[in-house]
Amino acid sequence: GFNNIVSGALHMLTDYRSAGLPSLRVNFMHFLPLIDEDIERMEVVLGPGSALYGPNTANGVVHVITKSPLESQGTTVSLGVGERSTYQGWFRSAFEVTDGFAVKFSGRFVQGDEWPHVDSTEVAAREEAAADPPACVADRQLRGLTMEEAEIACGRIGNRDHQIRRSSLEARADWRFSDRGTLVGTYGVSGVSGIELTGVGAAQIDNWLYQFVQGRLTYDRWAVQAYFNFTDSGEAFFLRDGLPLTDRSTLGVVQIQNGFSLAGGRQDFTYGWDYFANRPDSRSTIYGDYEEDNDINEWGLYLQSKTALSSKIDLIAAGRIDAHSI
Questions:
Q1: Are 280 and 288 in contact (CB under 8 A)?
Q2: Which of 75, 102, 161, 254 could be cross-linked to 69 through a Cys-Cys bond (beta carbons 3.0 to 4.6 Å apart)?
Q3: What is the rounded CA–CA span in Å between residue 157 and residue 132?
């Protein structure tokens, strides 16, 4: 799933939450507000995802699962400095507030200089705009910009800022309300500045914000969660033409799963329901003329069966149905 600049074919999850940018579905892993010290494990599913993972899992699944503050407590602080004016720091602190209730906080900051690169297409476009500014402004006005916006767009063609800045913060609370159930709440935010590659050339981004809020409840084999991903691209623009790159899309998700066993555990069933509310919002800079008519609602039902044919052989069968509003 990585044979494209902004591939969305791979299904990326963190703590059971879809981690790609909403609507665009691209896996900008440096947007994720987590740090290496907080990773408990990573799960990988090769090839098409099972019915349990939902739609859009044709090219595999990578699931990053972080440490619970109930199980992993203490404080870690790391600082680093390196070439290309690189400075970085990160921390993780987890502690138990009361018996069965614990919280954790983690964050990071990275700053450095990108390797310099000259895009010949950007250079040619900048020279063309400088040679005939009125023509450049008129062209941007034809694309829907005001006079002032068109002048700004023409002035920033090929104007690269090679400094990279990334910062993030994540807060999580876990409450084990019984031996059979846990309630988890998480909030995360990250801001990224630098140069991002796209399918139509590089883009300059300045403090592109990515945020999420998530609640998860588990009780026996019941698993219920709801989360909301939202993004704001700020003042991002395409370097080859100076046009704005606006993305303020959101994704809301509700998921329910349960399971039960029969015949002394030799036969097991898992079933569930998913709902995805995808709301693209790019002010027509990405999604085009249908911007006001592209809200997407998806729901799905699934059932998976696992039968123990022997102590070493299982037979697994799964089925799923999904409906898409567009």
A1: no
A2: 102
A3: 13
Amino acid identity at 150: A
**Residue 153 vs residues 199, 209, 236, 285, 291: alpha-carbon distances, Å:** 19, 22, 11, 13, 22
Distance CA 161, CA 204 (A): 7
Could you tell me if 300 and 318 are in contact, meaning their C-beta atoms sit under 8 angstroms apart?
no
| DSSP, res 123 | H
Q: What number of other Cβ atoms are within 10 A of residue 8's Cβ?
A: 16
The answer to whether 34 and 170 are in contact (CB under 8 A) is yes
Q: How far is CA 53 from the centre of its chain?
A: 16
SS3 291: helix
Q: Provide the Cα torsion 28, 29, 34, 40; round to 10°.
A: 150
Cβ–Cβ < 8 Å for 294, 275: no
Token representation of residue 306: 């696992």
Query: pLDDT-based confidence at 10, cuts 50/70/90?
Result: confident
pLDDT at res. 279: 94
| Residue 100, token pair as written in the block | 């069965």
Region 75-98: what's the mean pLDDT?
Answer: 97
Q: How far apart are CA 270 and CA 251, in angstroms?
A: 25
231 with 249: CB under 8 angstroms? yes
Per-residue pLDDT, 3: 62
Beta pairing, strands 17-18 & 250-262: unpaired
pLDDT of residue 298: 94
The H or E element spanning position 259 is: strand 250-262
Residue 207 CA to residue 109 CA, distance in Å, equals: 13
Give residue 2's pLDDT band: very low, low, confident or very high (50, 70, 90). Answer: low
pTM: 0.92
- How far apart CA 184 and CA 202 sit, in angstroms, is 38
